[in-house]
Design a protein that fits this description.
InterPro entries: Beta-barrel_RND_2 (IPR058792), BSH_CusB (IPR058790), HMBD (IPR045800), MdtA-like_C (IPR058627), MFP_Cation_Efflux (IPR051909), RND_pump_MFP (IPR006143)
Radius of gyration: 37 Å
Number of helices: 6
CATH superfamily of the largest domain: RNA polymerase II/Efflux pump adaptor protein, barrel-sandwich hybrid domain
Helix content: 10-25%
CATH architecture of the largest domain: Beta Barrel
Keywords: Transport
Family: Belongs to the membrane fusion protein (MFP) (TC 8.A.1) family.
Mean pLDDT: 85
Pfam family, one: Beta-barrel_RND_2
Strand order of the largest sheet: 2-11-14-13-12-15
GO molecular function, one term: metal ion binding
Length: 356
Amino acid sequence: MEKKPGKCPICKMDLTPVKMDNSKGLKLSAQQEKLANIKTLTVGYDYVDNKIFATGIVKEDENKTIFINARLNGRVDQLNFKTKGDYIKKGDIIYKIYSETLASTQSELISAIKRIKEDPRDITSQTIINAAKNKLELWGVSERQIEEVKNQNKPVIPFPIESPYSGYINKINITEGAIVMEGNPLIELRTYKTLWVEGKFYSSEVSKIKKGNTVDVMIDGTENYFIEGKVIEVLPQVTSGSAVTIVRILIVPDLPVIRPGMHANIYWHETNVKSLVVPSNAVIRDSKGGMVWIKKAGVYESRMVHIGEVSGDRVSILHGLNEGDTVVISGSYLLQSEYILKKGGGAMEGHNMSDM
């Protein structure tokens, strides 16, 4: 079909003017419907499974940050962990400290133990021993280290400070030779026992996802290994310049390779959702979206639709159809061709998906 007079570009015959039908919809005779094998179905509700796929990034669980602070004043003579990302195990020697207060308390403990051995009834010495042990425990000295001090004749200088926690170093605030004061933050640890996945969901999908919902998460590089995640927060802000909303998901990874910064695939599944459904072959899809043909009072009309989840040979309709509508389930493409022949344009022309 050409828009101006002339000859056919294929057969070179003169073009014949065609009078366009500007009426709304198409009317077909019973014979035409039979030849086109037109079949219809009344639209109704049914129960389907909804699935949503999204991508995201693994983030640190900011609620699981651990701080190791200085328990007493002194000078750091030896620092054993200096690099961000290094793993510290509970009980590892983080650093050795020279502290006059710590050395003095060790001396008091050793001297009191010697006196109590000479006179088991020496109440004063026993009081000093108890007080010294309490001080050492307050400064983070373990029971094993206290026993080592009790069994030797001189203080341990510099004294090794053990880590009270396990985790990966996120920040180090000390260097060898530095003077530290009681309460100074020295090292920040992250355990990675729990992590966040911040998923990017379209705003139209977020209304279905609630706090407490469970999702399946697969981290890049761990194909076919799914982790169950729990939605802990739907962030109120929308990402700048897009219609994407961030959903924060808590995961408990049991693979040591999973770290912040890795990409994740998120799968959300909801069963037995009541929805308007039509057969998949009733929907014609093109770059403008989805369209169906409906029959109304003997006239076939095109209708733009917003489709949802595809489940087998059925598709849920979110917008564009109502319960009781009569939709064409066979012969849709022939109706499309007939419309173009009679009207001179596609049935989707003039429709605007943004209005749905």
